[in-house]
From TrEMBL:
GO terms for molecular function: ATP binding; metal ion binding. Keywords: ATP-binding, Cytoplasm, Magnesium, Metal-binding, Nucleotide-binding, tRNA processing. It comes from the Bacteria. The keyword Cytoplasm applies. Pfam families: TsaE. Coiled coil: none annotated. SUPFAM superfamilies: P-loop containing nucleoside triphosphate hydrolases. The keyword Coiled coil does not apply. One of its GO terms (cellular component) is cytoplasm. This is tRNA threonylcarbamoyladenosine biosynthesis protein TsaE. It is found in: Cytoplasm. Belongs to the TsaE family. GO terms for biological process: tRNA threonylcarbamoyladenosine modification.
């Protein structure tokens, strides 16, 4: 497993990091976002959406669980926070093979959706606008993406 740590010091820098992730990403990639409430998961996802040319306002899908955005490739934004203890097939795995990017917040609640190859991004709130992003990757394509982020 390869690892990289990047710190950002403003919302704009977090958006820029998301743009860089999107620009280096390949269709079918899955990003798992881990961090406390308010850590910056949705802010990073907004940057990823910007990098895909998505013009719609990206918000946390907490109440919808899944939101789909269309840009240079589809972005599937899943918030699994409310799925803790749910053991039924909700059909989300179909999106993982659909040629878009999938972002899963609170992935520990849906381990069945996590493919063998993926990127886990752990986000820590350092100060009001500062964040630490620690990237862990599984799989060769994700290792290449990590190299592009350095």
């Amino acid at each position: 497993m390869k690892e990289l740590t990047i710190e950002t010091y403003s919302r704009d820098e977090t958006h820029d990091l998301g743009r860089r992730i999107a620009q280096a990403a390949k269709p079918g990639m899955v990003f798992l976002l881990d961090g406390d409430l308010g850590a910056g998961k949705t802010t990073l996802t907004q940057g990823i959406a910007m990098g895909l040319g998505i013009k719609r306002n990206v918000t946390s899908p907490t109440f919808n669980i899944l939101k789909i955005y269309h840009g240079t490739m589809p972005l599937y934004h899943i918030d699994a926070y409310r799925l803790e203890g749910v053991h039924q097939d909700l059909g989300f795995d179909e999106f993982l093979d659909d040629g878009g990017l999938t972002v899963i917040e609170w992935s520990e609640y849906v381990p069945q959706l996590v493919p063998p190859c993926h990127m886990t991004i752990t986000i820590e709130l350092l100060e009001e606008n500062s964040r630490r992003f620690t990237f862990h990757v599984e799989g060769e394509e994700y290792e290449k993406l990590l190299e592009e982020l350095k």
